[in-house]
Amino acid sequence: MSSTAAKAKQIFRVRLRGDAIMNSPRWNKGTAFTLEERKAFGLTGRLPYRVNTLEEQCQRAYDQLQMRDTPIRKNSFMQSMKEQNRVLYFELLRRHLKELIPIIYTPTEGDAIANYSHLYRRSEGLYLTFPSQDSMEEDFLEQIKGRNIDLIVCSDAEAILGIGDQGVGGIGISAAKSALYSLIAGINPERALPIILDVGTDNDQLRNDHLYVGWPEKRVRGKEYDEFIDKFVQLVRKHLPHSLLHFEDFGTSNAHRLLDIYRDQHAVFNDDIQGTGAVTLACIMSAIGVTKTKLSDQRIVVYGSGSAGHGIASQIRDAIVTMDNLSKEDANKKFYMLDRFGLIKESLGPEKIRGSLREFTRPDSEWQDAKTNDNGEVELVEVVKRAKPTILIGCSTRAGAFTEEVIREMAKGCDRPIILPLSNPSRLVEVDPEDANEWTGGKALLATGSPFPPAKNPNGKDYIIAECNNALIYPGLGFGAVISQARKISDSMIIAGTRRLASLSPALKDPDNALLPDMADAPQVNYEVSVAVAEQAIEEGIAGVNWKKEEVREKLKEKRWEPVYGTYVYDPEGQD
């Protein structure tokens, strides 16, 4: 019997009846309640006569979805479905994965978050607000009462999906990321908790909006902010010691700092840093498999050195150290980092270089005769001309920053330039991949952060643009850590998952194919990532389970949650 069939035969003892069970997204089956269940739970007169299968419900729901004429309306429809029937929501997503991920996640979720207070209908997750911190533990315990929580996804919403500070609307990204853990990796949604850490907002438009539902004050910073975050993290450590704590869309000034503080205290993961770094590294490993070079052979320009750009550089650097046995100092020399002050070099001074970026600082002696702008900054085109990079990565959210001059100049310096314009949403991409393909004569190896159509090569063949989407790896990294009850997420666990993803690249079989697997294959891909991560945790001795590595694959199959209806038995002492 398949695992799906076995899970469909599960029996649940439920104490909710009548409207209560139909208003519970966890237990509601809608028209799929059997005749026996309708009688037992007092639903016979509350439902029309015919009993539908889950497949029939999906067909009806998909037809209704297609009537919505804009992505934001489709997002709203899916949100409403999640609030009504959890199994139907996830099964519909599973059947139309590639089409609907951009609806419930980037780019459409960004629009939903920006309009959160005006679209608000019903709360989801946990809202921990700075002025209510005295009751934080009470509120936290109330939310997790009677639940076994494996995953917490939290955000302070300072840097949401390329659209900046969104205040309390950041609960939307916590919920979306949590949903992808369930959809793609198999974490039971009942065991996941999205949280917004509402510490105010510096978004004047939100604070001045009389319909804004968050705390309408300037964003808290400094010692008060750190104490609030620490209070929250210590609650997680105290009450959910085996959970995974996922940090999402924290601002540049806090993201790396908080990860460094807590990564050895708990299983902590920052997707913007580690997830973005891991999927980009996998993409690059695939590309160098095509070019038949080593990671340590590369010259890498990162344009945009915020959380994502720095995370990518750190992840690639650590892989160079691990895989090619370079020292950290020598590996750092492979990078040219740019931010709003241009190339990060010594003469910028400490006031313009964040502490975590200093290890990538270039010496001034390399750039004494470099062309600069009116502010004395070395701009991207000059860096490309002089450094002759083999890899160009964009995390800047500056649309069109990779100009024709930049791309053509890069193509002069290497046979197969690796060009990764990763900014989201697609309107903010540094270069349209079709243009990059044309300007390099079809030589470029390309991937983007959002979906793009294929580009035409000079021979008329389609070149598939890989989507360098965190969803190809972070759910598997997290589930592997959760299922193995790892005490922390080590760098080697992340590299193990990254290597497994890279090994699945279509380009390794056909160099003209995509650098990463298709998003439609994300569940199977993340299963493989989970296996690699859990095996590594066991090998390192930081897993909390007593398994052998050979058992991991079957254990994961058994424990993956799937969107199927079980059989319900009414029991006044059962679950609610």
TrEMBL record:
User: Can you tell me where the transmembrane regions are?
Assistant: none
- Entry binding sites for a divalent metal cation: 248-249, 272
Sample GO molecular function, one term: metal ion binding
The Malic enzyme NAD-binding domain extends over 273-538
Q: Which UniProt keywords apply?
A: Metal-binding, NAD, Oxidoreductase
Pfam families xref list: malic (PF00390), Malic_M (PF03949)
Sorted alphabetically, which Gene3D superfamilies does this protein's record hold?
Answer: Malic enzyme, N-terminal domain (3.40.50.10380), NAD(P)-binding Rossmann-like Domain (3.40.50.720)
- Can you list the GO cellular component terms from the UniProt entry? cytosol; mitochondrion
Positions of the catalytic residues: 105 (proton donor), 177 (proton acceptor)
Origin: domain of life: Eukaryota
The record's annotation in SMART domains points to: malic, Malic_M
Cofactor(s), by name: Mn(2+); Mg(2+)
| UniProt GO BP | malate metabolic process
Q: Among its keywords, does the record have NAD? A: yes
Which protein are we looking at? Malic enzyme
